[in-house]
Amino acid sequence: MRKFKLLLSGLLFAVMLQAQETFPVNGVADKREGCYAFTNATIVTNAQNTLKNATMVIRDGKIVSVGSSGVTIPKDAVVIDCKDKYIYPSFVDIYSDYGITAPARGAGGFNFNAPAQITSNTKGAYGWNQAIKPETDASRVFAVDDAKARTLREVGFGTVLTHVKDGIARGTGTVVTLANQNENLVMLKEKASAHYSFNKGTSTQSYPSSVMGSIALLRQSYLDAQWYKNKPAKEGVNFSLQAWNNNQSLPQIFEADDKWNDLRADRIAKEFGAQYIIKGGGNEYQRIKDIAATKATYILSLNFPQAMDVEDPNDARSVSLGDMKHWELAPTNPAAFEKANIPFCLTAADLRDPKQFLTNLRKAIEMGLSENKAMEALTKAPATLLGVYDKVGSLETGKLANFLITNGPIFSDKTTILHNWVQGDKYGVKEDAWSDIKGIYTLTLNTPSGNINYTLDVKSAAAANVIGKDTLTGKFSHDGKLVKLSFSTVPARRPAAGAAAPAAGMGGGGFGGARGGAAAAQYRLSGVTNGNSWNGLGEDTAGNKITWTASFVSSAAANTDSARRRPNIPQRLSKVTYPFDGYGWEEAPKQESLLIKNATVWTNEKEGKLENADVLLKDGKIARVGKNITDATAKVIDGTGKHVTAGIIDEHSHIAAASINEGGQSVTSEVRIADNLNPEDINIYRQLSGGVTSSHILHGSANTIGGQTQLIKLRWGANDEDLKFKGSDGFIKFALGENVKRTTSTSNNRFPDTRMGVEEVLADAFARAKDYEKAMKADPKTKRDLELDALVEILNKKRFITCHSYVQSEITAALRVADKYGFTFNTFTHILEGYKVADKMKAQGSSASTFSDWWYYKVEVTDAIAYNAAIMHKVGLNVCINSDDAEMARRLNQEAGKVVRYGGVSEEDALKMVTLNPAKALHVDDKVGSIKPGKDADIVIWSDNPLSIYAKSEQTIVDGIVYFDRQKDAEQRKKISSERFRLTQKMIGEKRGGGAVRPAEPSFQILLSCGDHDHKDGLFTIHSEDEVNLNN
Amino acid sequence: MKKIFSTLSVLLLVAGFTKAQEVIYPAKENKGRIYITNGTVHVGNGTVLENATIEINGGKITNVGTSITPSASGATVVDAKGKHVYPGLILPSSDLGLKEIGAGVRASNDFSELGDYNSNIRSITAYNTDSRVIGVLRSNGILLANVVPAGGSVSGSSTVVQLDAWNWEDAAYDMDGGMHINMPSFINRFGRRGGIPPALLAQFGIAAGPADPAKAALDKVEEIKSFFRQAKAYLQEPTHSAVNLKFESLKNLFNKKQKLFVHADQVKQMLIAIDFAKEFGFDVVIVGGSESFQIADLLKANNIAVILGEEHSLPATEDDDVDQPYKTPAALQKAGVLFALNDESSNTRYRNLSYNAGTAATYGLTKEQALQAITLNAAKILGIDARTGSLEAGKDANIIISEGDILDMKSSNVTDAFIQGRKVSLDNKQKQLYERYMYKYGLK
User: Fold this and answer.
1) How far is A1023 from chain B (nearest CA, A)?
2) Are strands B84-87 and B33-42 parallel, antiparallel or unpaired?
3) Where does the pLDDT of residue A586 fall: very low under 50, low under 70, confident under 90, or very high at 90 and above?
4) Smallest Cβ distance to A1019: which of B104, B206, B290?
5) Are the CB atoms for A675 and A643 separated by under 8 Å?
6) What is the mean pLDDT of residues A611-634?
7) A999 to B443: CB separation less than 8 angstroms, yes or no
8) Helix residue ranges, H only, B349-396
9) Top-level CATH class of A439-492+519-554?
10) Does A841 score more than 60 pLDDT?
11) Shortest alpha-carbon distance between residue A751 and chain B (Å)
């Protein structure tokens, strides 16, 4: 019923639409100026300025004057007394899709089992990629949607920037008000912004299929558009590039939705001289310093996670501490921005229900966000960014009459928005709360047998007691104008348990009707309120018509509804750790001077294995190696019975990245793992526990020429940039064989489908690269091509190849392509038939990086043998043992041990296969890989012979910093357990306290891999390519 | 030049001995006596005998001790001086011989049948004694394997095979000893509660899992139980107008000649398995058991044995101890649970069973306990401990000899293996390819 009424009021306003000049009138002209004066109000004109007892006059949808004194009220003004009321500028939502129909996605996309869609499905003179659609113009597809507008108005918004939330380049956004008027009249700025994201949305085109692919596509689009400015004849007309260029002068808004994505987006902007306004993900407080360094303005959603139902310990177990902490700390995100002085706006986007907006905003304020900042982030900040502060965002003469009337300070829990005025039209939000009807009334029933008086104690618009001899609870409702009341004349009493329903006649006899089964006889009254006196019609308990009146006597005893804020009770909150998960640091470990005494030191140098030797680490470097070393400043570690080696280097790893495979095309040399590092992957810590200090993060093997790789050091807690192994050469991943010809797909349509084609993909790519290089030299205005740039780097020995390969035919073919085009294969990885062509690889100077004993998981590894490493080693190749597996990487030392068993390689040479040899293959053997003074202090202290199954890393040191310490790890486990307990209890408390909870959501760990073979993961791990491609 | 030539000719000689996989023969029966002397004998039950001798006669172990003198006439003596002697290792749950090449070659895969209630399916009928994996496992000391079917809620029966046979009939070591069921998951990996979002799944035509996975799982459990209840009732009556092969094949489970192997990792799945044991009186073995460390005491109290899944796995959750899977065996040992270790790696094809045990020994087990988890415990769980699993008189002579500690990769070179007293070939395709290319490069 209530809903129906709201609908009616909406219709009423529709009738009052201000007709446009050009539009015909069906009927009699009804022009109104809409002049109103709001008097006696507390007017907050902007975040800094509040006027007491002030007046505001509006006319024709605009503010005519506002002030505490000197405001003349025009004679034709409708005066609205706003005593005890507050007036605020209504909010501006800078991140909305209001009035835009959500685009639907067709079938398609890239995974290992589906056919590829190589070109765009968009018809017309547009660009090549379906996800790049800067030509999209929200103002052309916008349509007023009053149902949606109402939900936004009810939480205080009056103006929004709306756009089509779809694709990587999403076109322009338009600023509209939430008035229920013709589209023509609500549009404040046709093109106010340009929008971007990493998410290809409804595009069914295969490329890009990864975060790094999206990044590469954005970068290439900037270059293409730049080049298009000169109208190159070869391109013809390209509306997409044209629109891209036209949009550049607008505010650029990037939906990043995650703290790391924020940084990734910002780097693109900086590279091309742009500055994005970044729509964040709500987890920015976890890296606020890095966020501040972007100097960008942020758009923050107030979509805080709900508590989970973790009463069942099994369910609780599945939720990670990181997710529990985020539940607790997410509401601190806006405050963290304010504290770090980062400019931001707030949006209602992403909320499960827009109605939560104010509740969540108040929660953010409770968690430290200042009210002024909140107001600014909802008014002036977005209006200024969008260039509409001359129209909205504050209450000043000449601006639109977009404002809220509330019954108290807007950020107070108890405050209700009464009206939301948009462009001079009133939209009632909660009319019934306008007048405070609470209080004591005298209720008089004019019955045939005379007047009966009761005292009516109105508690709220929905509750009242009728007091006669007893207190009678009735049903009461008041919606601002109409009032309804029904009550029984007998006090409420619970029916006796098991009592039979009263006999039919009993209820009809007036007094004494029983409650329970049948309804007791009641007075039923309805009427209209008019200030302090109400009257209406009703029926008595016998069904006689009666009239009634009620008149106000006094306010209720204590007004509990004051606008006082809840006292700020200091809460115990989780600490932000780096990374933001159980094993993160509250305080990062520091570089130390360390002296390891009396250990067995495997130097990997000509000194070989030294017994009872010492190693001194200073300033992040190995300072000395030998016997009887002393250093007064160093912390001494007793190495008796222990073994010390260089840190393990994993030549082939897929940890610590947001995406690994860009499989959308056969040549994707433009994508870079470095663009999407994820320094919070728990596998970094787990691998430190296995003695790994450096990992080469490779692109997957979905295509022949994959992406650029990144060598990292396992600096647990660092940000993505600091994870990188500084000063190392660039590498790139190539792949041959089954994966790149998509053998497991039954519907492959992507070239190549055979090894013959794989060879030609290589030949073609380098032929194009050579032509490109020539063209560039001849004419520097040649369009820059990121894909070919990387290949030219290979030709110029500035970038080096690590090539996934298995069988001898493909290896030989690759070597010959390299010979022909004048480059070399630096490393063959996997290379399980390397033993068959070791001599050929040696001739090209290639390294080999292989598994110790993997075989027979697919056809191309039927001839894989555990003796592969030994044979290649004996032929004289630089041989590495790698993991390609997050689990096995923790045991690489033991994988090297297998090379001793299969083929009899010496222990020292075997250890080199996971330390010095990968350092050589990666061109960093001048920095790491052996224990030699001057090299980086990347060191492992083992409990036993490092090649033995019984060896555990006791300490793993990177740059002289102890990143893993088995004793500290044991303490950390206790901390995790107690913190989990606290947060579990808190969530249970939330549930028992009646708070909304959702079912426990297991914190699945998404694991990425090259899509080559199985992995042994835990119960709560999802393997992206095993199950479904998650990179979209 | 001359030197190269001579090396080459030596290698040619070696190459002359090399056989193709097809001519690696199963060993002939050995009726005579064999003595394995002077070795460090790891009995498999925790006992280690230094400088001991094992006497084998007619395929059985007849004596084990430190004061045995080999009888002079006609006996074969294998000198194990400086070496370690172990019971043949047992792979307790595997698709060996059913799955040749897992990825990309559907034709070579016979491990998972269609249908939901496949109690009548028998793994042994598809077991391929000529699988190339088998020779590699033998050379790593694995002499017995339990070959297990997959698929459906009830997958069918498993058979223990010995790994030196012409055909599955002579490979069968203990026929149809286990019935295998898969416990429905109480966690939804596909959509809704966590996992992969439904919208994304829809793009790839994958249906989202149930909204309430626990309820869906319990409904399924009830359906499985109902299947067993009906089977039990069916088996009370000797004649039927319509024979039900699915029920008929459960006879041995109900009369306890067969054990029930429940494939389960989650706590609730395992608790349901205990419930199965209680309701039907089955001998229950959990296969998988990644979360078993959490309810080890309950498993012990209910006499539920566990075949632990791949130990070389990542921890189940982000917050778990980084070495949790490595120390789960120690937790079960401490609680007194009968457990075996397994190797399920599809990349190394199960050859690292002893190193899984080695890891368990690094993280809390003694070496002999770790050994027992891949020998005697496995035999007990599979119901074959009267015949094998330890080096004790009366048992089959299933024995391996290693140059060093079998649990540690760098020393675990297996030099000899005996199955039922037959000295089996340790040659395999990998060794042959090794020789072939050592020959190519003129290496030694």
Assistant:
1) 10
2) parallel
3) very high
4) B290
5) no
6) 97
7) no
8) 353-362, 367-372, 376-382
9) mainly beta
10) yes
11) 19
The alpha carbon of residue B104 is apart from the nearest alpha carbon of chain A, in Å, by: 5
Cβ–Cβ < 8 Å for A319, A1002: yes
Percent of chain A with pLDDT over 90: 77
Question: Rounded CA gap, A194 and A246, in Å?
Answer: 10
* pLDDT tens digits, A808-817: 999 999 999 9
**Interatomic CA distance for residues A926 and A930, integer angstroms:** 9
Closest residue by Cα to residue A499 from A515, A523, A475: A515
pLDDT along chain B (444 residues), means of 10: 43 47 88 94 98 96 95 89 98 97 90 97 98 97 98 97 97 98 86 56 65 91 97 96 97 97 96 96 97 97 97 94 97 98 96 98 98 98 98 98 97 97 96 96 93
Q: Which pLDDT belongs to residue B20? A: 67
| Segment A16-68, tens digit of pLDDT | 445 577 888 888 988 889 999 999 999 999 999 999 999 999 999 999 999 99
B322 contacts in A (CB within 8 Å)? Answer: 583, 685-686, 689, 890, 969
| Pairing label, strands B84-87, A297-301 | unpaired
**Chain A residues in contact with B362 (beta carbon < 8 A):** 949-952
Tokens of A5: 């009424």
| Residue with tokens 């294969």, as numbered in its chain | A825
Task: State how far the alpha carbon of A734 is from the alpha carbons of A677, A704, A769, in Å.
Answer: 19, 5, 15
Chain B residues 73-132 with a CB less than 8 Å from chain A? 100-105, 132
Query: Which residue from B minimizes the CA distance to A689?
Result: B322
- Exposed, middle or buried: residue A305 (CB in 10 Å: 0-12, 13-18, 19+)? middle
Q: Quick check: do A89-303+319-428 and A648-928 share a fold?
A: yes
Is A901's CB within 8 Å of B411's CB? yes
Q: Is some CB atom of chain A closer than 8 A to the CB atom of B327?
A: no
CA of A999 to nearest chain B CA: how many angstroms apart? 7
User: Shortest Cα distance from B65 to chain A (angstroms)?
Assistant: 29
Chain A nearest-CA distance from B337, in A, is 21
Q: Please give the Cα distance from B331 to B317 (Å, whole number).
A: 18
Across the interface, do A1019 and B266 touch by the CB < 8 Å criterion?
A: yes
Q: Which CATH architecture has domain A578-646+929-969?
A: Roll (2.30)
User: Mean pLDDT, chain A, as a whole number?
Assistant: 91
Q: Topology of A89-303+319-428 in CATH? A: TIM Barrel (3.20.20)
ipTM above 0.90, yes or no: yes
**Over A958-1016, what HEC string results?**
ECCEEEEEHHHHHHHHHHHHHHHHHHHHHHHHHHHCCCCEEECCCCCEEECCCCCCCCC
Tell me how far apart the alpha carbons of residues A230 and A232 are, in angstroms, rounded to a whole number. Answer: 6
Question: B102–A1004: do the CB atoms touch at under 8 Å?
Answer: no
Q: What is the pTM of this model?
A: 0.91
The winner for highest mean pLDDT among A202-216, A457-471, A1013-1027 is: A202-216
Inter-chain residue contact B186 with A314, CB threshold 8 Å? yes
Q: Give me the CATH code for the A648-928 domain, please.
A: 3.20.20.140
* B344 at A interface, C-beta within 8 A: yes
Structural domains for chain B: 25-88+389-426 (2.30.40.10), 89-388 (3.20.20.140)
Q: What pLDDT shows up at residue B6?
A: 44
Residue B301 at interface with chain A, using a CB cutoff of 8 Å: no
- Which residue from A898, A903, A1005 is facing B318, i.e. has the nearest CB? A1005
pLDDT exceeds 90 at position A435 = no
